[in-house]
Design a protein that fits this description.
Nuclear Transport Factor 2, Chain: A; alpha+beta; 5 strands; 5-stranded mixed sheet; 137 residues
């Protein structure tokens, strides 16, 4: 595995574990990190993933990330993975449903040295909301 793929996998593993989100963000994301994925109600700094993953762990106590693919090209790594768990707490305005939720994600991470400086991502938000009970009846 390439060096950036190893860094990406380590970052994902630490975020998935939820042991210390702040330490993982501070270690793996540069201070000038730019979040290009539009996350409702959040800005485009490294605090966006910090807040988002804390919310995910609070809403999904068994939160986990399962990586299917990591592809390295130059200073970027593309990742395809699923994340989710049991929706046991409020998440983005949705009350706990008790449903198991699986969210499909494709991300691109750009690195400078051993830190990520930018992220672009697509998350299956409609699928996630449907699994949490917000879909059409």
């Amino acid at each position: 595995m390439g060096d950036l793929k190893v860094l990406t996998q380590s970052f994902i593993d630490e975020i998935s574990s939820g042991t210390d989100i702040d330490a993982a963000i501070d270690q793996y994301l540069a201070e000038d990190f730019v979040e290009h994925e539009d996350v409702p109600g959040m800005d485009n700094t490294r605090d966006t993933p910090r807040v988002l993953f804390k919310m995910m762990h609070a809403a999904f106590p068994d939160f986990h990330i399962d990586v299917q693919d990591l592809i390295e090209d130059g200073d970027k790594v593309a990742a395809r993975f699923t994340m989710g768990g049991t929706h046991a707490g409020e998440f983005m305005g949705m009350p706990a449903s008790g449903n198991v939720v699986t969210i499909n994600v494709i991300d691109i991470f750009q690195f400078r040295g051993d830190q990520c400086v930018a992220h672009w991502g697509l998350m299956d938000t409609p699928g996630m909301m449907d699994q949490m009970g917000a879909g059409p009846e």
